[in-house]
Amino acid sequence: MNPFINPVFNPVFSRYPLRLVDVGAAGVLRSPWPRASTFLHVYAFEPGARVEDILQGQNQNITVFPVALSDHSGRAMLHETKKPDGSSLLQPSNNLEPYGGSDRFEVVKEYPVEVETLDQIIAQHAIPYVDFLKIDTQGTELQVLKGSEGTLVSVFGIHLEVNFFGRYEGQTYFSDVDSWLRHRGFVLYDLERRYLKLKTGLNFGGPKGALMKGDALYLRNPLIPDIYNDADPESRKARALRKIAIALLYGYVDVAFGLFQEFNLFFCDEEIVVLRDFFSHTKSSARFIPQFRGRVRLARFFKQIGAWLEPRSNIGSSGDDIFGNSLR
């Protein structure tokens, strides 16, 4: 599915591209964002040794900031772990010791890094707007959000890692992040869960262990008025199209269609025809499958077959494979 709908809108997206802030950006640009690379500018934040590896070859429109983000400016100690993805401004917790793969969180190096708030960076570099935040900072996600409150005015979606288990000393939990975002008009749309089993029982029972962490997707509540006001009509149209594109990237066609209905006054008659034709081709094919006795049992059977075929991790890690309405 083309998140940019139709080439008729390409001039608008060219002038007003999607702007993604990727905090903790080392590695490849995560799904589903590669599908938006045609009209996407990425602002990538990654302190430490991995800054040179940020999204190499993934997107030409990228601005790299070799700093850590938080709710204050200054310097902080980065704890680099054996598994680089586990590096954090927080010290890994001893709570992980009984679980599979805990050695990945062994600290191998510590050094100071620069810390800024996202609001400061946005203001200093005159970035006109941000559409989406992706935050993966190993336990400091709420601090990053608190330093981004001014930026959030234009943000439609947030994809961030959340914690259910004490993996880092002084970390925040899902309940902290969820409450903070809900009070600012964001709705939890999906939660991808990750589990980890005890070392002593890696080969016993099913794949699930303790619920450790997850990836949460929040969208600004599409049922409340837009708080970000664009004076220029073309800018308002572009904002509506970018929100629709984000909803389509994550497979929420119902949200995209609702946004189209909310903002249809911004579009001319010809554009409305194009949009209606696009949405008419996105209706679920499941409606063509007739109801029959045993359909639920059959669906459960195939789901179980899929679970049997799923490769097992040698450290007892497992989790969900679908985020939004699209496969990872």
UniProtKB/TrEMBL annotation:
Keywords: Methyltransferase, Transferase. It comes from the Bacteria. Pfam families: Methyltransf_21. One of its GO terms (molecular function) is O-methyltransferase activity. Residues 41-187 form the Methyltransferase FkbM domain. The keyword Glycoprotein does not apply. GO terms for biological process: methylation. The keyword Methyltransferase applies. PANTHER family: NODULATION PROTEIN (PTHR36973:SF4), SLL1456 PROTEIN-RELATED (PTHR36973). This is FkbM family methyltransferase. The lineage of its organism: Bacteria, Katanobacteria.
